[in-house]
Predict the 3D structure of the following.
Amino acid sequence: MALRVDILTLFPEMFAGFASESMMRIAAEKGLVNVHLHNIREHTHDKHQKVDDSPFGGGPGMVMMVQPVADCLAAVEALDHRRGPIILLTPQGEPFRQPMAERLAQQLRLTLICGHYEGIDERVRRFVTEEISIGDYVLTGGELPAMVLTDAVTRLVPGVLGDDQSCQDESFTSGVLEYPQYTRPREFRGDAVPDILLSGHHGEIEKWRREQARLRTHQRRPDII
Ligand code: ADE
């Protein structure tokens, strides 16, 4: 089942490398996830293509206007009959975590709105179905958060990663952090790969990995146990 991701932004060029490289490129080539970028500025009505204005009531900075966002959204909705969550990326949103990525990966369509400037007109919130934050820090815009969300969701769409197991073993999906991984060489500057991994005893290796994952989670992220 393919996923369509529509991203509404003032800075579509920021997504160029993201959408055309690595996993996102493969997902698009396989027809599994297709990202469509939409420039909010193209939906302004005045000749200066104004997308922001000073806040009513005064105060510093500029506020992103509701009209270009609303019109861009209406145009984007008309492009495809599929419907799905309309998400505003904002530090005020619900924290983005793996279960949320898993839920979003089951949708047919995601529409992401990237805010910018000091804020976005409150009335934009009427048009969205959810608000998501990628963490407790403030970025200059919703573009990086939209990429983070799209990346985390895309890799969960069945068929995007070669091996479905690689999604299941990893940190957060299994409830514990991932076990330590090694590849060639067997020894690097005196630092050797644990013998157990070279033993060929698959049962013992499994046990060691489970224990390492448990230990690591206990030490680094006791909050997720
Ligand atoms: N826009 C600015 N900061 C953000 C954050 N932490 N999460 C989502 N959107 C944002």
About this structure: The radius of gyration is 22 Å. The mean pLDDT is 95.
